[in-house]
Amino acid sequence: MDLTAPTAALAAAAADLVRLVPGKLVDPVLSGVLLTATAAGVELGASDRERTARVSCPALVHTDGQVLVPAKPLAETLRALTEPEVRLVVEGNRLAIRAEGARFALPLLDHTLHPGVTSVSGSGGVVSGASLATALSTVASTAARDEALPVFTGVRLRSEDDRLVLRATDRYRMAIASLPWAADGEVDVMVPATLLVEVAKQVSGVGQVRLVAAANQFAASWGQTAVTTAVLDGTYLSETKLALSDVDTRVVVDADALAAATRRVALYSDARGVVKLEVGDSEVRLRATDQNAGEAEESVKTTVSGGRTSPAYQSRYLLDALRPFAGQRVELAIQPGMRATVLTAVDPGEVELRYILMPMLPPKA
Amino acid sequence: MDLTAPTAALAAAAADLVRLVPGKLVDPVLSGVLLTATAAGVELGASDRERTARVSCPALVHTDGQVLVPAKPLAETLRALTEPEVRLVVEGNRLAIRAEGARFALPLLDHTLHPGVTSVSGSGGVVSGASLATALSTVASTAARDEALPVFTGVRLRSEDDRLVLRATDRYRMAIASLPWAADGEVDVMVPATLLVEVAKQVSGVGQVRLVAAANQFAASWGQTAVTTAVLDGTYLSETKLALSDVDTRVVVDADALAAATRRVALYSDARGVVKLEVGDSEVRLRATDQNAGEAEESVKTTVSGGRTSPAYQSRYLLDALRPFAGQRVELAIQPGMRATVLTAVDPGEVELRYILMPMLPPKA
Question: Ranges for the DNA polymerase III beta sliding clamp C-terminal domain (chains A, B) (predicted)?
Fold first, then answer.
C-alpha cells in the first residue's frame, strides 16, 4: 500500500472512526483500523464485533493494498501533523506515515484476523442531520450510563407515520423527541446511547442521515461515514406507561430564568439536592433549605393556569430538564402527588420534545 | 451589619479570597470569611492559621459590624447573582444575601473563635505584577506537589542586589528566574508554591506587588489584596550545586518547532516516555522507539555550535522546559554524560529564565 492524502481530511476520518468504535483493550485487532486503498481512495474501517464503522477519504493511491494498524496511534499522529499532505506507505512490517522531515512507523497487525466491516440491509428512512443531533443531544444523554442495567442504556427509535420518535429513560426522568421522517420502511429498535451520543456530534452539520433497522442490527450513514451496531432488547419502553391525565397546574416560564434561579437556590439545598417550586399566581418561588447550608428562596415570573400544585425536584434533574429548552419558553404540566411533571416547549420547532421528570419529597421545613 | 455593594466587585473579592486561602475541612471556622463593615467599606478576611488573606471592597455601609460565615457558599452565591447590586444584612442568626426577588441566608459562625488576619512587618521590596506572574508561572509549577517532601514544594525567593531571584526544583528539573527588584531591604525565604501559583494568577494585571519577609513569615500585597504565609525551611536550594562547566554543545532552535516535533515523536516513545535528541550539523533529529508502538523520527532546523553531544530526555519534562520559551528562540547548553542541560532564551526580556533539565538514558535501539 502506498498513498498520498490531504492530512486534515485523513486525520478527521481517523478521529471520527476512533470515536465511533473506541475498540477493545483485550484484543489489539479490535482496536485496529483496517485501511483499504483502491483507485477510489482510502477507506478506514473498524469493528469491535458489536459495532462497526467505516469512513472514506480521498487519496492519491500509488499502490493498492489493505493493512491493519493500531487505530488510536494513527489518529493521534495524523492529528499532530501540520503538513498539508501525508504519505502512508508499507515498509517491511511497518506502515510508515511520512511528512516533510519526519517518519512515524506503526507496526502492521495481521489483517486476516480482523472480523471485517459489514453493512446492514433492511428497512428505514431519512432524517435531517441537524434535527437528529438536536433530538439525540437530549434523549441520548437521558439514558442511564450504568452497564448493570443494559436495558436503560439504550434509546428507542421508532417510526410513527411521518415522524421518528426517540425515547430514553434512566427511570428518574424520560425524554421523548419526535422529528420529521422520510420513510421507505418502518424502524423500531433500541440502540446503545453511547454510540448515538457520538453520532449526534458527527451529524449536526450534515444534510441527510439514513437510518436502517434489520434483525438485531441498526445502521446509520451520512456523507462518507457508515456505522452499524447490535441492538439492545428493548420493547419495554412504551408510551402507555405515561399517565398524564391528572395535570392540574400549568406553569409557563422562561427556561433560562428558571434554570439560573435553580442554580442559585440549589447552593442551599439538602444532601438530596432538592428544591421546591411553590406555584403562586404570577410567579413560582424556588425554595431550598439545609440545616448546615442555610436557606434560599427566589421568585421567577411565570404564567400560571389551573391549580397551585407545588412539586419539589432534584435540582440537577430539573436543570437537565430545562437545558434543551434554553432560549425558549417552556410549559411545566404538573400533577399532584408523586406523579410526573412534563416539560414541553411553548413554540416547538421541527424537533418536538417532551421531558418527563419525577418529583421528590419536598425538603423538611 | 448591613451594607450594599456592587455585586461583581464583591464576588471577585470573595472568589480571590477563597482561592488564596482554600480553608481547612476539619474546622468550619478556618473555612470562614470574616466580613468587617466600616465607613471605609467592607473587608473580607480568611485564615487557616498558616496562611491569611484579606481583600477590601467598596460598599455603602448602613450599619457597621463584623460576622463570620462559610466562605465558599458566600463566594458561589455572589458569583451566581446577575443583579448589579447586592445587600448583605444580618437577620437573627443568619447573614442574608438579598437581591431583587431573592434571599439567600448563610448561618453565622462564632467570629470570636477566628484567629484573625495578621499583617507582616519586615524588609522587602517591589516588583512588577506582570513580571512576577511570568516568573512564577514557570518556577512555581516546577516545584514538587508531593507533600511528603515539603522542602521541594517551595519556591525560594532571594533578593540579589537589584534583582529578585526565584528558584524551584522537584529534583528532576529546576527553574531559576530573575526579575527587576526595587529593594528597601533583603528577602531570602522559601514560600509554598501552591500559594504562589494562585498569586501569579491574581497579579498578572497589577502594576506593583510588594513582597515582605520576616522571621518565618512572608507577605505579598497588591491593589486591595494582602496575603501572608508561614515559610518553609529551605536554605538548601543554592546556586552552587549547578556545575555547568562542561557544556560542549550549544543548540539554538525555535522553541515552538521543537515542542511540536517532540509532541509527535513522543507518541512513539517507550514506557519511560524518552525521546532522543540527535544533534547534527544544522538540525536536531528527534527519535523515539518502542517495541509495541513502533518508531518515529523528525528533524528540526537548528544552529549548532561546539560538539555533537546527543542527550535523551523524558518528553514530558522537555515539553515543560520549552513551554516558557514559546514564541522565542531558545538555546540548549548540553553537557556530556548524565549532566544537566540548561535552557535559556536567546533574547531574554525583563524576566530572565534558566530551565535546568536532567537527561535520561537513551531508549534502547
Answer: 247-360
CATH class of B2-113: alpha beta
Rounded-to-integer distance, Cα A53 and Cα A58, Å: 17
Contact B104 A292 (CB under 8 A): no
Domain extents in chain B? 2-113, 123-239, 249-357
Please give the Cα distance from A166 to A219 (Å, whole number): 15
B240-283 pLDDT per residue, tens:
456 677 899 999 999 999 999 999 999 999 999 999 999 999 99
Contacts of A21 (CB under 8 A, 6+ apart): A46, A47, A48, A51, A52, A53, A71, A227
Out of A82, A261, A297, the one facing B260 most closely (by C-beta) is A82
Residue pair B301/B283 in contact (Cβ under 8 Å)? The answer is yes
Confidence label for A118 from pLDDT (cuts 50, 70 and 90) = confident
Tell whether B352 is within 8 A of chain A (Cβ).
no
pLDDT tens digits for range B108-152: 999 999 999 988 888 999 999 999 999 999 999 999 887 777 878
Chain B, residues 294-313, CB within 8 A of chain A, namely 294-300
Region B249-357: CATH code: 3.10.150.10
Cβ-defined contact of A264 to B298 (cutoff 8 Å): no
Does domain B123-239 bear CATH number 1.10.3720.10?
A: no
Inter-chain touch A264–B77, beta carbons under 8 Å: yes
Mutate to test the interface with A, among B109, B282, B295 (most CBs of A within 10 A): B295
